[in-house]
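Weekly sync, protein design subgroup
Attendees: M.S., D.O., the rotation student, P.L. (late)

Item 1: inverse folding check
M.S. brought a backbone from last month's batch and wanted to see whether the design step gives back something sensible before we order anything. D.O. pointed out we never logged the input encoding, so this time it goes straight into the notes. Structure tokens as presented (120 positions):
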């Protein structure tokens, strides 16, 4: 099993910044991709940003130029630097890890989520 622990959410004013962190622990064999999804009230969960082990990045159009995802493979940690936050960024942010075990079984693991609220 793999566990994901998130931190860094909170309340921030429009235009402000936050940095989310997520660290994977447990029986880690190989993590292909790590990243972040978010879910706002009444909306579906959507991909925010992800980074593969090959350093391939993917961003939602709505956050390009404002958010930056990064990864420390040695620490099994993924970060999300969020700048220029807008009220529409308000959501619960979930970390995920695309993990493959020693037998080649692939599974997505999820964190419990951290609340980000952008409001004046």
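Designed sequence read out in the meeting:
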């Amino acid at each position: 099993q793999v566990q994901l622990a998130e931190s860094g959410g909170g309340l921030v004013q429009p235009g402000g910044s936050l940095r989310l962190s997520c660290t994977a622990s447990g029986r880690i064999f190989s993590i292909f991709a790590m990243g972040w999804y978010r879910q706002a009230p009444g909306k579906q969960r959507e991909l925010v940003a992800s980074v593969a082990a090959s350093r391939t990045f993917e961003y939602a159009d709505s956050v390009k130029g404002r958010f930056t995802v990064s990864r420390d493979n040695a620490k099994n940690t993924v970060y999300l630097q969020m700048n220029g936050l807008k009220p529409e960024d308000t959501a619960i942010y979930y970390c995920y890890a695309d993990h493959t075990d020693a037998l080649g079984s692939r599974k997505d693991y999820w964190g419990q989520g951290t609340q980000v609220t952008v409001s004046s």
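Discussion: The radius of gyration is 14 Å. The chain has no helices and eleven strands.
Action: P.L. to compare against the previous round before Friday.
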